[in-house]
Specification:
Helix content: 25-40%
Number of strands: 11
Structural class: alpha/beta
Distance between the termini: 38 Å
Length: about 250
């Protein structure tokens, strides 16, 4: 079946909205049987809004604008505009993310111990002079950066767990930071929350999505309608955050 079968033709009603520096153009498909507005992104057809016959274009523009972030992320995924896993070299000038902001790496050799700090918009890493040549230096810098990320995650994630557990009314147990390659977080029957240190690279709104998501799992195990309803009570835009993490998540995997 063609992915565009049943979609409006070239003479269909259209509109557009501005979101920041982006313009979202969309096609309108009206149905007398339709009671609600839905938005879909189709490969090759773009954004299609299905709406009741009587819904005005101005109202549809408002709906599209409210979903603009999700639409843009979805468009990026459908057109293949999604960054792959970066190849890290751990050299001066390379950029690293922390809570969604980019910092350029500055490597300083010397001293007895490795340390990392954010200084004047840079991620400064000081490591001892390596004895194994360039490869040894890369290993030292990577090890120092990962340790720094883990320490930051261990500092910030428990704060977010407390915040969201209070809003959800769910009691959480111990918060652990782990090296996980297949998931962002997990929870145990005992209420222990385990988080992948890599998530601390994401903007806080995506970190919060992972935290709240896992807290709800303490009470609702499956991704059922009940689960999403419970999450939606405290995080109405969870779908946008979910798509944001899916679209950007590969950038954090190194």
């Amino acid at each position: 079946m063609s992915p565009t079968r049943g979609l409006p033709g070239p003479d269909a009603e259209r509109s557009s909205v501005r979101f920041g520096t982006k313009t979202i153009r969309y096609v309108i498909r009206r149905s007398p049987r339709r009671k609600t507005v839905s938005i879909a992104v189709h490969p090759g057809a773009g954004v299609v809004v299905t709406a009741p016959s009587e819904t005005g274009t101005a109202k549809l523009d408002e709906v599209v604008h409210a979903k603009a972030r999700w639409i843009l992320e979805k468009l990026g995924r459908e057109t293949g505009i999604q960054p792959g896993i970066p190849k890290r070299e751990f050299v001066d000038g390379e950029t690293f993310l922390y809570l969604g902001r980019q910092y350029r790496l500055k490597v300083v050799s010397g001293g007895d111990n490795a340390f990392v700090r954010l200084l004047r918009g840079r991620l400064t890493v000081s490591v001892p002079v390596p004895s194994a040549g360039p490869s040894g230096a890369v290993t030292q810098v990577r090890k120092a950066i990962v340790a720094w990320y883990r320490a930051k995650a261990a500092e910030r994630l428990p704060e977010r767990v407390v915040f969201w557990s209070e809003r959800l009314g769910i009691e959480a147990g111990t918060v652990l930071v782990r090296e996980q390659t297949q998931r962002w977080a997990s929870c145990s029957e005992a209420g222990i929350l385990r988080f992948n240190w890599r998530i601390i690279q994401a903007p806080m709104r995506l970190v919060d999505y992972v935290v709240a998501h896992e807290l709800v799992h303490l009470e609702v195990k499956e991704h059922s309608a009940e689960f999403w309803k419970r999450l939606g009570v405290v995080m109405p835009d969870y779908d946008l955050r979910k798509e944001g993490l899916r679209a950007r998540g590969r950038r954090f995997q190194w």
